[in-house]
Amino acid sequence: TEFNPRRFAAVIMRIREPRATALIFASGKMCVTGTKSTHNAVLASKKFALIIEKVGFNPAQELDFKVQNIVGTADVGFPIRLEGLVYAHSTFASYEPELFPGLIYRLVQPRVVILIFVSGKVVLTGAKTEKDMSDAFTRIYPVLVEFRKQNVTTIPGISSPVLANVAPQASANSAAIAGGSTNESSQREMEEV
After folding, report:
1. From CA 137, how far away is CA 110, in angstroms rounded?
2. What value, to the nearest 5°, has the Cα angle with vertex 188 and ends 182 and 192?
3. What is the dihedral of CA 58, 64, 68, 69, to 10 degrees?
4. What one-character DSSP code corresponds to residue 148?
5. Per-residue b/e over 141-169, b at no fewer than 16 CB within 10 Å?
6. Edge-to-edge strands of the sheet including 103-106?
7. What is the average pLDDT across 15-32?
8. Which of 66, 127, 164, 166 could tie 133 with a disulfide, CB 3.0–4.6 Å?
9. Torsion over CA of 63, 111, 104 and 70, rounded to 10 degrees?
């Protein structure tokens, strides 16, 4: 348990089983984070309430428990063409590689935000239920398959994929050597084709 009011206006309390962290505010509100399921979050909040009661405070008899946000991660196992995806789904997607390396895809139903990275790693956030999380991934997966990079081969022992077809990259480099103008974004586009 730690409390430093100059740094943060809440008591930070941690328990080991289920592994969770609680932020306990002076208003009596409590925010539980770090659990792996909704069930564990409910169990942790009851344990935190019991600890607060043992210290001398009287918590409410019935906890007004509500899930605000569920975060999940996945690896689809193949690289993704983010430029093509943002071009085809510009209504729902935004991609600014100069600011952030991931594409931000906002699903309308269920209302979930998905961060998609070139590597194939995906972060889903904003779901209120585990079913919403599952539905969101089920809806985005076919889109990810559609924008899968095709000319990629993996070399045993190397974790990052290497392009099988290096001719486009070589032509971009030769244009720069020959005095032609090329910039980083066009080289990145050539690598992703």
Report:
1. 10
2. 135
3. 70
4. B
5. eebbeebebeeeeeeeeeeebebeeeebe
6. 70-75, 121-127, 113-116, 103-106, 93-94
7. 92
8. 127
9. 20
